Each structure stands twice: as structure tokens, then as C-alpha cells.
Amino acid sequence: MLTLSGISKAYGGRILFADATLQVNRRDRIGLVGPNGAGKTTLFSIILGEESADEGKITCERGVTIGYLPQENVPADDETVIELATAITPEYTKLRRILKRWDANHPVEASHPEEIHDDVHDRFNELGGYRLEAKAKQILAGLSFREKDFERAAREMSGGWVMRAHLARLLTQEPDLLLLDEPTNHLDLEALLWFQEYLKNYPGAILVISHDREFLNQLVGNIIELRQNKIFRYRGGYDDYLVQREASEQQLLAAYKHQEREIGRLMEFVNRFRAKNTKATQAQSKLKQIERMDKVEAPTGDDRKLDFQFPQPHRSGHRVVKLEGIHHAYGENVVYRGTSFQAERGQRIVLVGPNGAGKSTLLKILADVLKPQQGTRTLGHNVKAGYYSQYRVDMLQPDRTVLEEAFDTPQRLTEQFVRTLLGCFLFTGDDVFKKVEVLSGGEKSRLALVKLLLDPPNLLLMDEPTTHLDMSSIDALAYALDQFEGTLVFISHDVYFIRALANHVVHVNAGRLTHYPGGYQYYLDKTRAESERAGLTAGMDSKGRPGGASNRRSKIGNAGEAMPAASRKDQKRFEAEQRQARSRERRAQQEIVNRLETEIQELEIRKTEIIAELERPETYEKAGHALKINRELAGIQHRLSELTLEWEQRATQLAELEAF
Prior knowledge:
The two termini are 54 Å apart. Helix 3 (90-105) crosses helix 4, helix 9 runs antiparallel to helix 10 (280-292) and helix 19 packs antiparallel against helix 20 (625-659). A six-stranded mixed beta sheet has the order 5-6-7-3-8-9, sandwiched between helices. The chain is built from 20 helices and 18 strands. The protein has four domains: 2-241, P-loop containing nucleotide triphosphate hydrolases (Rossmann fold); 247-292, no CATH class; 319-526, 3-Layer(aba) Sandwich (Rossmann fold), CATH 3.40.50; 570-659. Helices cover 46% and strands 18% of the residues. The longest helix has 50 residues, at 565-614.
């Protein structure tokens, strides 16, 4: 469908990619990854024809349509949300407005479309008609728009909502190839999960830039990495890419070391005999042999490794913050009525729920940024709260440099420590001497995060902290917060980030808070079980029995009702059988965990042996042997990834069974 052949692009002597090749077929799902500045967005611009390549050729099948969602700054004019979502062509928008005006002026006759100008109405139906509008409304609802928002002017809404409306337009239009640049940045968790499922069934091809690894794992079948001026293609999702890349890096490192040893051996001969007349010719031959070698590039190892400790806050009391009888409304929209909430030391609470449910409002009330109309907020002993939102950049001083702003903290820190942390959040080299006023919105957000981490409060309240961060920065933030010894309450749409940190989930919906005392997987399992129970209850008759089937509950009696002796005996027997079944299940689960741990340990030992073998020169003397063990290493890496994931799931299930 789309082919890029031998594409090269450079800016001011800096090469983004050279002789790059990319093939996109129909229904492909491809993730585009790489460090900031690698050229991902530039590659999109070349595909769209907005920029030209220095060299190479782009071939596209005739009639293929391409839709593009940029990362930000998509404008909105006077159109309504539904007009923006249905703006598949200027002609469709114009015809829709003509028909809407006609309906408004002819309310009685509007049910007789044949009385409208035939050409207008027929052409409107050819372009999709009101079926297209119904589809757009369904997509808007999936992206968390409320029905009353459909006729609102888009320019009245925030930039994030305008981006969602533009995304709805693309999904309504259904181009053959979707180019999406960080499409999840402006979505809440509920909308993200809907969007993820929608794209799985999308009829066209998708090429997506994303720093959300869970999103990539769920959606894509290939990863394209831009690195070292080249394009590398890997099969599978993001986790598969990491395994394959690690194996590739280890192979490359082994080959590089082998070549360096060979060059060293040849140069030793040259240096020893180049001055001797009898050996000078041989020495020159060795030099030419070195020159003819296809040089192996050393792996860059550009992933950041953190090896320092972050400052820790003062220890708070056990009860950190408490809300009682909270009432808050925006006009007639009541968000909370008599709501209570409590967080305890060491909890890492993620707030989840549909957009508009009140998650950000709750966070602002906890931070004392927003005063509730009724109710009380009480901080525990020795508690210091810190609030981070995407709009916290107002707290930065525009005339300071990045380094000066980072040093503005009560903590006594060395410049090396501060610059190391700044580097983790992409402020490297001379970037630290930039003025705050010239930073982009994303850079200001990252700097605000650095300041928060350099002087962390013991109650940290964060609203979508991963927005504008690339994967290495998200890793740096997750690493920092994993060490954090205080209490964390946060909102995020990044499932990887949530899984890495949350040990408590609070679902917010219609002013009601539902607590789940476990991580994100525990929350998913519990809500799935609750949904299944609700489905069973819905299928029962008025007496609580499934239609036409025997009801186990009727056999063992309802809790709280008096039961005859025979029924009580049956109940006790049933409970004993349940305990025995749980015990058997625990033993079986423990055996599986033990088996997995043994297999993982054996594979880790074999992996160490192979890596050591690859570093020995004699490995490469036997033809095909190095290739054979490299393949074995790749297989081990893949198997370890599968086993580790299964072990995590089984260990979690075992812990839940033991806690029952």
C-alpha cells in the first residue's frame, strides 16, 4: 500500500535517517518508537508530502487515503463538535449545514426530504448522509463526549477536547492509512480503553507514534525503531521488541568485540613488522585487510540507567488525609454529595473512572487547591501536600535557567546530582542553560516534575504526570515514585504506569467512590467478577431463580434466613467442600509457581553461558556455530519473557488465594 525506499533526511548536517526503507501493507498495525529527536514526526511529514526527503522514493497505491492526527495544536473554528467530527470533506460540511438550515425553517415539512432541492439531498446521501452523523456520535460517545456537548462550539472547549473531536473525525472518515502521533495524550483511561478496542477492528492500516507501551502491546503487530540513523523492524508488540532488541544488542556487542580483537591482532603484526623490509609487504596487506572490513558499529546503549537515590520526605502519621461530608457542584452539575475519602501512609492510590466523574475535582480538593462547598479536609500529623497538574508550569520563574530553577529547593544537593536527574528528563548538555520562558509546554511539565522529585512532599497528588514524557522519562518517573516513601494519589491513562505503581484503586463515578484494596489487575478482576454476578442476577426470576434451571442458592439457603437442620447440614458440607477446593487450588498454584521459578532459573543460567561463549574468539572459528547459539539466545530471551509474565500472574493468584 505504501513503500518508502532509500529515504534519507538531514537537518544542518545532522542525519535523521539514511537509506531507510519501510513497507506498510493493508491492515498493518505498526508502532513507531525511538528517542526524542530521532525523526519520528519528520517521517510522518515525509509520508504526508509536507516535507521532502533528501534522497529516496515514496510509492503509494492509487486512490489510497491517508488521515493524520498531529500531537497537538489542531485548530478549531466556529464549527460545533458534531460538525467537526463529521467534517470528512468540505462538501459534506456545506451540504449538512444547508439541510440543517432548511429543517430549521421548515419544521413541519422537514419529514418530506423530497421537497428539499433534489441535488443537495441526493449528493448528501451519496457522501454518507445522516448515517455518517450517527456513526460520528457513537465515536464521540466512546471518546467520553456527552450528548449535550455535540452542539457546543468546539472553540469553547479545551485543546484536549478539540483533539478528541479531530480524532473522532478521522475515525468517522476511515482513511486507508491512519497516521497517529501520540493519540492517547489527551484521553482519560476509560476513553483510552474504548479507543484501543476500536482500533483493533479498524479496517485500514495504522502507523502510530506512542510512548504508551501497554497501548502498543495491545494494538500493534510490528515495531519500527528509529535509531542510529536507521530503521529497524521487529515483530510483535512493545515487550516483544524489547526482548528482540536486547538479543540483537548482545549479538552485535559480541560481534563488535570479536572484530576489535581481530583488528588488534592485525595491528600488532603491522606495528611489529612494518619497519622490516622482509615483512613490510605483509604488513601493508594486513592494513588493507583492516580497511576492507565491513566495520561493526558498537551498540549505543542509549537507554538511561538510574543508579542514584532520590531525596525522601519526612515521615507522616498513619492517617495522611481525610475528607468528610464533601459536597461540591458546578452550577447545577452536582459532582459530590456527602462524600468521604481517606488515604493512609504508604498507599499509592490511582483514581479511575469515566471522564467528568470528578477525579480531578477530588484531587484538587485533596490538595486544597479547590475548596469544597461543604465538608472538611483534614491533614494528618506532619503531612506536607504537593500537587502536580499539567498546568503547574505557572509556578516556574520564566527568567531563570533550567538549572537555576531546579536548584530552587530547600534540599542541599550537588550540581552533579541535579544535572543527572535533569538528564533523565531529557535536559542534557547545554539544555540546562536554556531560559524557562523559551521551553515548550512539555519541557516545562518535565521541569516541574524534576522540582517535585528534588523536594518531594510526603503526600504527592499528581494529575496525568506522564503526558508529554517519552518512555525513558516515564521509566525515570516510575523509578523515582517506586522509591518514594510517602503517600501517592494520582490520575493516569497510562496502564503501564498504573500497573508499576498503584497498590490501591478508587473508582470514581456519579459522586460515588468504590475502593479496591489492590493493584490494577486486582481491580480489573474484581470488576469483571462483579459484572458477571450482575449478569447472573439480571437473569433470575422474581424469586431469585434462573428461568428453567435449578438454583444452587435455593438449595443452600439465603444468608440471614432461618434454615431447617437438614439445610444447615448441607450448608456446612458445602462450605467444607469449598475450603478443601481452595486448599487444593492453592497447592496446585504453588506447584506451578515453583515449576516456573525453576525453569526461569535454568534459562537464566543457560543465557549467561551463551553470552560468555559469544565473547570467546574460538566461537567464531567453527562455521555457523555463532549463528546457531545466537538463535538459541533469541529463543531463550523470548521464552524468559513469556515465563516471567506467567510467573507474575500465577504469583498474584497464589497471593490472593493465600489471603482468602
